[in-house]
User: Which sequence fits this backbone?
């Protein structure tokens, strides 16, 4: 069976595809591999791997030296930035971008994620793998199944029926609250990791993950309360956790939010599944560094193990290839992407069946 797919941002209707899409990705993979863009970048990553613990240690020394003062709130901002950047490095390791050895990548992810940042690698790997397999697919992508935000009209209807008063009003204006809610994302990331390592679900190296998380999640707050008086300590931890969550959310949110939602029963070939549900963010190399390469979401989803430094170079050839194949390649500015996210989420919350008023796309198949 063969067919074609065309989607617009916000549309929840798709056209299924067949064997042609599989061959298209195979050809793209061959071209990208031949270009050398899949080769490892050991110098780049070893520099970052050495720098990460050094920067954390230097930050801790500076924190102790500054002492008990409200000026430490500026230090909290610094820690939020440092931990987010290190988490992005852990994301690279989890995708096998750093080493050829899976074992080396696993241990690097645990050292970075669990010990330095306080996020469970096992939890992240389980959740993120499901997302990569089926981005924006109903019932398959955990990133569109959140407890406080509705990403599909069906989710909004279910929640509207079970809520009342202020909660119902808040859901109808959920786009306005999306970014403020990210202030709780840092706490949620820590809590989700702890819940995962103590759950009964299968988890490799559970003992190691628990030990690393315990060191990070107990030692860091303990140090804060040893150096700072209680009031400043609570303010410091609240600001650090809040900004960590906002930074993480603002790096990940533009990638898929407001892009097409795939119904659970629809199958889409790999090339279109990854390209049509993803959005790139245009910008300079400074933006590349700030977003940890996540602004090249299309390239990352097509080639998850491609080292981060190669994503910019790959984007040009992949964009041209998609255009030649008739596959929409979405790219926007950073602030424009945030506007799209807020408008989409808010209009879903208002109960609109098609948040961007796109005409439904009919399924066309030939057998």
Assistant:
């Amino acid at each position: 069976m063969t067919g074609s797919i065309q989607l617009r941002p916000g549309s929840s209707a798709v056209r299924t595809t067949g064997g042609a899409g599989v061959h298209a990705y195979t050809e793209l993979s061959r071209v990208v591999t031949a270009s050398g863009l899949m080769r490892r970048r050991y110098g780049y990553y070893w520099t970052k791997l050495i720098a990460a613990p050094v920067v954390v240690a230097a930050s801790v020394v500076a924190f102790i030296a500054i002492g008990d003062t409200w000026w430490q709130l500026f230090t909290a901002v610094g820690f939020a930035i440092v931990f987010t950047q290190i988490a992005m490095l852990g994301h690279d390791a989890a995708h096998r971008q750093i080493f050829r050895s899976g074992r080396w990548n696993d241990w690097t992810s645990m050292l970075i994620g669990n010990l330095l940042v306080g996020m469970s690698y096992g939890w992240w790997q389980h959740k993120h793998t499901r997302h990569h397999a089926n981005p924006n697919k109903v019932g398959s992508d955990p990133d569109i199944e959140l407890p406080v935000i509705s990403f599909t009209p069906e989710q909004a209807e279910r929640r509207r029926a079970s809520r009342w008063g202020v909660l119902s009003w808040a859901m109808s204006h959920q786009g306005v609250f999306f970014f403020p809610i990210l202030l709780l994302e840092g706490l949620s990331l820590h809590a989700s990791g702890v819940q995962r390592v103590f759950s009964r679900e299968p988890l490799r190296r559970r003992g190691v993950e628990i030990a690393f998380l315990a060191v990070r999640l107990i030692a860091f707050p303990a140090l804060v309360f040893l150096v700072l008086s209680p009031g400043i300590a609570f303010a410091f931890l609240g600001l650090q956790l809040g900004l960590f969550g906002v930074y993480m959310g603002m790096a990940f949110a533009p990638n898929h939010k407001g892009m097409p939602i795939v119904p659970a029963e629809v199958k889409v070939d790999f090339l279109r599944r990854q390209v049509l549900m993803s959005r790139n963010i245009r910008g300079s190399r400074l933006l590349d560094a700030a977003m940890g390469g996540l602004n090249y979401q299309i390239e990352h989803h097509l080639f998850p193990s491609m080292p981060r430094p190669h994503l910019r170079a790959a984007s040009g050839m992949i964009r041209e290839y998609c255009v030649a194949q008739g596959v929409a390649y979405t790219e926007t500015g950073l602030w424009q992407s945030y506007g799209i996210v807020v408008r989409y989420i808010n209009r879903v919350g208002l109960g609109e069946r098609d948040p961007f008023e796109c005409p439904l796309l009919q399924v066309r198949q030939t057998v």
In short: Residues 42-66 form the longest helix (25 residues). Strands lie at 2-3, 280-281, 331-332, 365-366. The CA atoms of residues 31 and 358 lie 34 Å apart. The chain has a mean pLDDT of 86.
